[in-house]
Amino acid sequence: MKKNDLKITYQVFNNVQELTADDFVLAEYAIKAADTAYAPYSGFHVGASLRLKNGKIVNGSNQENSAYPSGLCAERVALFYAGSQYPDTAIEAMAITARTPGKKLKMIVKPCGACRQVMAETAMRQKSPFRIILIGEDGNGLVFESIADLLPFSFEFE
Ligand code: THU
């Protein structure tokens, strides 16, 4: 057997103003999108915004339900909405942020495994990677140029 290593690449920023102008605007949309979260059970408000290749912005927020598994993460709300409304338009970038009103979130929230899987298939469908920008409450964050850096070895079905 042979041992392999895998390298992932991402960028770190201290302030959203370090992002490109378009990505800065997208980050602002994601922060605003978290306002529409319906999260009475977790108190965890997530916003996700997509910029499509045609310049359109699609926003999503997490939507919970008293039957817990019926709820959906912000990322998938945005991705599935984009897929249903603009099936032929590729995504260029995605911004994600979260906050817990009344209590400061110290960490930068990373998307859950299920959302990463949907991101991976979206990138595969559109045949191009899209940038993923994770924004912390202090405006700091991480940038991944491709879901491959967040979810190596994603499930694929031929
Ligand atoms: N949530 C998201 O919207 N995105 C993630 O990447 C992780 C978790 C939501 C689901 C649920 O409404 C709440 O955050 C707590 O898990």
Describe the protein's architecture and organization:
By secondary structure, the protein is an alpha+beta fold. It has one domain: Cytidine Deaminase, domain 2. It is built from 3 helices and 6 strands, in the order E-H-E-E-H-E-H-E-E. Helix 2 packs parallel to helix 3. It binds tetrahydrodeoxyuridine (THU). Tetrahydrodeoxyuridine binds near residues 62, 64, 71, 74 and 75.
Quaternary structure state of the chains depicted: single chain
CATH structural fold name? Cytidine Deaminase, domain 2
Instruction: Give the neighbour order of strands across the main sheet.
Output: 1-6-5-4-2-3
Low-pLDDT windows of residues? none
From the coordinates shown, what is the CATH architecture?
A: 3-Layer(aba) Sandwich
What shape does the CA trace take?
Answer: globular
Integer-rounded radius of gyration: 15 Å
Structure summarized in a few sentences:
The chain is α+β, with helices and mostly antiparallel strands and 158 residues long.
Layout of strands and helices, then pairs:
Blueprint (H helix, E strand, L loop, with lengths): L10 E3 L7 H13 L11 E8 L4 E5 L12 H12 L5 E9 L13 H14 L4 E5 L5 E4 L14
Parallel strand pairs: 4-5
Antiparallel strand pairs: 1-6, 2-3, 2-4, 5-6
Keywords summarizing the entry:
158 residues; alpha+beta; Cytidine Deaminase, domain 2; 6-stranded mixed sheet; 3 helices; globular; binds tetrahydrodeoxyuridine
